[in-house]
Each structure stands twice: as C-alpha cells, then as structure tokens.
Amino acid sequence: TVGAVVLDSEGNIVAGTSTGGMTAKRYGRIGDSPVIGAGTYADNESCAVSATGHGEYFIRYNVAADICARMKYQGLSLSDAANTVVNDVLVKAGGDGGVIAIDAKGNVAMPFNSAGMYRASIDVNGNVKVAIYKD
Amino acid sequence: QGKPPVAIAIHGGAGTILKSSMTPEKEADYKKVLTHAVKHGYTLLQKGEKGEVAVVETIKILESSPLFNAGIGAVYTFDGEHELDASIMHGGSKNAGAVAGVKTIRSPIEAALMVMNESPHVMLSGKGAEDYAKENGLEQVDNSVFDTEFRKQALDKAKARMQQVSNGYGSQQGNERFG
What ipTM was predicted for this assembly? Predict the structure, then answer.
C-alpha cells in the first residue's frame, strides 16, 4: 500500500491511498485503503490520514477518522492522536500497521506498530526525512 | 510576506520488513524512490498546485515502482490476478472518491480522483469502476502489466502455507496479511 498526505498553499489538507490489497485474497475482498474513514480521511479542522496495514482491523476501528476525531473533539495533538490509535487502540486489538498524518499547520506524524514502514516527509521548513525502520 | 507553508508525508507500506533480508542495494532502491516521490510532491505544492494534484502525482510515482504494493508491483490475488483499490479525500470540501477491486485501470488513484471530482458518487467498484474510468478517458491496461516475479513467489508461498494449515484466511498469518 502507498499513500500521501499534504498541506497545500491554500491551507487545505488532502489524503490519498492506493493498494494492491492482500496476497492471495479471494471473494472480492477489500481492505481499508478505499474505505473513507478507515484507510483514508481528511478534515481541515483536524488532520489528513493515509493508513497501511492489516486492513480488516483498520476498517473495524475506523482508524483514519478516529485519529481526526481525537484531534477535533478531544483536542489532542496530531502526534498524540495518531500514536494513541496506532500504538494503543490497534495494538490492543491485534492490528498491525501504521499511518501517515498531517494537520493544517503542517505537523507530520508517521507512527507504526510493525517492524517497519517505508516512509518519507518534507516539513514546512523543508526538512526531508526518509526512513524504513523504527530507528 | 513569505510563501504559505506546504508539507507532505508519504508511505510505501508497513509490515515485516526484516533487516536481515534487506540488502544495502535494496534499501537504497527503496529510499531512492521514496525520496524522488516526496520531493516531486513537495515541488508541486511549492509551485502552488492543489493538494489533490500533489497527492495523485506523488502516488503515481509509487504506483509505477515495482517495489511497492500498488499499481505495478501489486500483490496477486488467489487466482493470480491483481485487484487494485484507491481513495482520496479533500479536507476542505470533505469530498472523497474511491475505486475498489479494479483490474484494468493503469492508475487507480487517478480513478479515485475522477470519482471525487467528476461523479456524484464516493466509491465505485469492479467492472463498473472500470467502465466509468474507460468512458472518461483514463488509461486502460492489461492486468499483466502489474506483474512482478517476487510478488508471484509471495503468492506461491502463501498458497503453500494456506494448503498446509487449512482453507481460508484463518491460515493467513504471514506477511501477506498486510495491505
């Protein structure tokens, strides 16, 4: 699965996700990637999220929208909201994976609870990060 | 007055990415594509392109790379094909578009954008989504365009494991459970 989240010059945030799904899937199985709220979500009042991982869990726990809702209604920071959902809610449920998320100020969070996540970002100051593993 | 702030983050999937099975060359290949994609998206944003354009053009780079599970390089279904999904959402308008289970659309994220911008719907699936994309001029390809040898080997391994343990998804405990 691949994805991107951005803050554009008009102050809008946008999220997108694209995937080949799960190896050996059958019966028209669909994961979280095309499900708005599960694998992809964006709201200028909170954040934009693209997810990757074990899709069935991301659908059941409404992961992308849950991160945005925690920011919007609980006043959590982007980092706290994304970390809570990925490293607490999902971990307790047994769901592996991660998300990339951005808020309207350009803050970026990229938490994951698996061994690695291919990821990269460029923040509002132009700082580039490219990483695969936790370290 | 300075330029308005722009920023971008991308991912290429998560899962059991073992350091032991990652050669320095392979790691460099991944980082090269990730760097190219994120810088391309950032440049578009700096030029004032809309966020949805930056998202789609960035993801198209990742869909075109055989390294990632999307577009070329997508994993195989049980039947040896590729079924692709994509979605996009705009945080200002709350508009969203998605396609699911498509086999012949060259860039699923382009199709998702088209559903968001050009249709009254949010999600189109399967043959209907393919027909819609075709009628609206999106590039169509044979499903084999998405083939890669290492994904075929992953399918063979997964099927062998599934056959050993039991039938059904209950036996999908390997890395293939990741999207």
Answer: 0.98
